[in-house]
Amino acid sequence: MRVVLQYTKQGAMKYVSHLDFQRLWRRLFRMADIAVANTQGFNPLPRMRFAAPLPTGFASCNELMEVFLAAAMDLDELLGQLNRFTPQGMDILAATPVPDSFPKLTALVDALEYSVELPECRVLPSAVEDCVPDGSTAWQQFVLAAELHGRRWRLLLASIEQKTLRPDVLVRQFFPEFDHVAIIRTGIFTRNRNIKPVPQGLSLLID
């Protein structure tokens, strides 16, 4: 049984590295007594994949991972058993069954949305052309949107062949005076339906 799980990673959990977070997921399934199918080969591992690894230090209110269960089970029971053991700052919000023929989540991700809280100390950019330098096509291909709402900067960054631009790199490039900014990943998007205000036919993955 193949299931896509939607979850949060907030508070102190944002400091857990992606490698340690993978180990945490394996422990969660063991503690919840839920059998996960293994990969093939000499070093079998639980079959689970993350839509897009979250860099250490970033919080998220909308992460996605897929897991192959060894046997079918009720989705409410799955959520209940896992959430009994999740640490503070991590909540599993939803479980969506998908067929085995469903594409890999990693192959579906076309854009990642972030909310960046900026200190109130200077005029901030409100559009892509204000924050990306002329002639910097390497940056421009990733920045789909950069919108200022008060002190919150909404960034929508493209994922191209599973490569993207880290929002903290973008912030440091244009605001070197900011020692620290709070960054939250708020959405993972794919190109399948035209849902405004997300540009270029992007829509929320597993909505």
Describe the model.
Helices cover 21% and strands 29% of the residues. It has 207 residues and is of the alpha+beta class. It has two domains: 2-102, Pseudouridine synthase I, catalytic domain, N-terminal subdomain (Alpha-Beta Plaits, 2-Layer Sandwich), CATH 3.30.70; 109-204. Strands 1, 2, 3, 4, 5, 6, 7, 8 and 9 form a nine-stranded mixed beta sheet that branches. A hairpin with a 2-residue loop joins strand 6 and strand 7. The chain is globular, with a radius of gyration of 18 Å. The relative contact order is 0.19.
List keywords for this structure.
about 210 residues; alpha+beta; Alpha-Beta Plaits; 2 domains; nine-stranded mixed beta sheet; globular
Structure, briefly:
The chain has 2 domains: 2-102, 2-Layer Sandwich (Alpha-Beta Plaits); 109-204. Helix content is 21%, strand content 29%.
